[in-house]
Structure formats: C-alpha cells, structure tokens
TrEMBL record:
Its cofactor is Mg(2+). Pfam families: HAD. The gene is serB. Gene3D superfamilies: HAD superfamily/HAD-like. Pathway: Amino-acid biosynthesis; L-serine biosynthesis; L-serine from 3-phospho-D-glycerate: step 3/3. It is an enzyme of class 3 (hydrolase). It comes from Haloferax chudinovii. InterPro entries: HAD-like_SerB (IPR050582), HAD-like_sf (IPR036412), HAD_sf (IPR023214), PSP (IPR004469). NCBIfam families: HAD-SF-IB, serB. This is phosphoserine phosphatase. It comes from the Archaea. Its EC number is 3.1.3.3. Keywords: Amino-acid biosynthesis, Hydrolase, Magnesium, Metal-binding, Serine biosynthesis. The keyword Coiled coil does not apply.
Length: 215
C-alpha cells in the first residue's frame, strides 16, 4: 500500500472554491487575486485564507451550499481515485479549501476517498461568520502526510503527494514521490515529475508500478 495525498483546488478540481463562493456576493475578482498571490507564494496561505473568509462574511448559508454544489472534479479524476483504491492504496485529500465543497464534488461522481483533511467556514444564524476553522490554516500538509503515514505504518518513501500551489510545497518536499499538476513556477523545482492531465498522472503511476496498465 502507498498513501497518495492529493491537493484539491487546482489539482483534483479545476474549480476554485473561494471564487465560486465569491460569485454569490460579488467578491469573486478579489478572491481570485488573493488566491493567485497565495499560490505564487507572494503571501502566506493562512493570511490569504483568512482574507478570503472575511470577504464572505454575511453570505447566506443556502447560497454557500449552492456554490459548493458547483465544485467539480477534473475529467478522469474520479476514475483515477477508484483505480488507486481498487489496487489497495490509501487515498487522501489535503486541502486548505472547504470540506463541504470536496464532499459535494465526490458525491456528484459517486466516488469516495479514505480521508479528507480540510477547513470549514462556520455558520451562525444562517450566514457565514467570516471566520475559517480547520487544521490546514496554520498547519501544513507535510505534517498531515507524516501523521497519515505513521498512523497507517507506511514509510515516507511509500508516500505520494500531488499538488500545484505554494501551500503544497511542504508535502511535496517530504513525499517519496512528488508530482506537480501544472504547478506554479515556485513549486516546480520541488517536483519529481510534472503532469497536465489525470490521464498522464495515471500513466505516471503505472510507470512507478502503483497501478496496472489501464486496458
């Protein structure tokens, strides 16, 4: 068994969750700008996430749920997850994004993962509070990956990390195999391999003996 840790926004999904949420209250452009700066390592991820959450203060929970329902997996992502799990691998999603959006996207494709480590936007009185909660605000993905490896008695050289942005760098730097999915310039040097589609990622996993060749 290997542990495969995927980032979500920009990797398993080409939906940017905070932008979808921002469209519900007219802050999408500001969301996109903050997100881009964070992914290029121009500001800390924690700072960017709290800034984006504040922009959502007062958004009706029903509208937030609509936005979560618009989150989608990339073409081929659900099939790749199924193949990995069918072959006995532990598949986790580590994302600074929001659990509800990840869950909705997986439900839409009828696919499951073993673990989701993510953040949440709390609701009070039927509206978002403008705060954010979760282990991946200040916490980093290397810690999450190392914790998962220890819990499942898997050595770090049998871990795989797949991501694209600066907040993925910690797990990419400690994983046994680090894969950039159309990575940002600041991320590319930390990657053992770079791919631009789920099909190519599947082929890469086949070449490393993690999957049988897809017939």
């Amino acid at each position: 068994m290997r542990i495969i840790a995927f980032d979500f926004d920009g990797t398993l999904s080409d939906s940017e969750m905070t932008v979808l949420l921002g469209r519900k209250n007219g802050t999408a452009d500001e969301m996109a700008d903050i997100t881009e700066r964070a992914m290029n390592d121009e500001m800390s991820y924690a700072e960017s996430l709290r800034s984006r959450a504040r922009l959502l203060e007062g958004l009706e929970a029903e509208l937030a749920e609509e936005a979560y329902g618009e989150v989608e997996l990339r073409p081929g992502a659900a099939d790749l997850i199924r193949r990995l799990r069918d072959d006995g691998h532990h598949v986790a999603i580590f994302t600074g994004g929001f659990e509800r959006g990840v869950e909705r996207a997986l439900e839409k494709e009828g696919v499951e993962v073993d673990d989701i480590v993510s953040n949440r936007l709390p609701v009070k009185g039927g509206r978002l509070t403008g705060d954010v909660e979760g282990s991946l605000i200040e916490g980093t993905k290397d810690t999450a990956l190392e914790t998962h490896a220890a819990e499942h008695d898997v050595s770090m050289d049998r871990t795989v990390a797949v991501g694209d942005g600066a907040n993925d760098l910690p797990m990419l730097e400690v994983a046994g195999l680090s894969v950039g999915f159309v990575p940002k310039d600041a991320v590319r040097p930390a990657c053992d391999a770079v791919v631009a589609s789920m099909d190519r990622l599947g082929k890469l996993f086949e070449s490393h003996g993690m999957l049988d060749a897809d017939e």
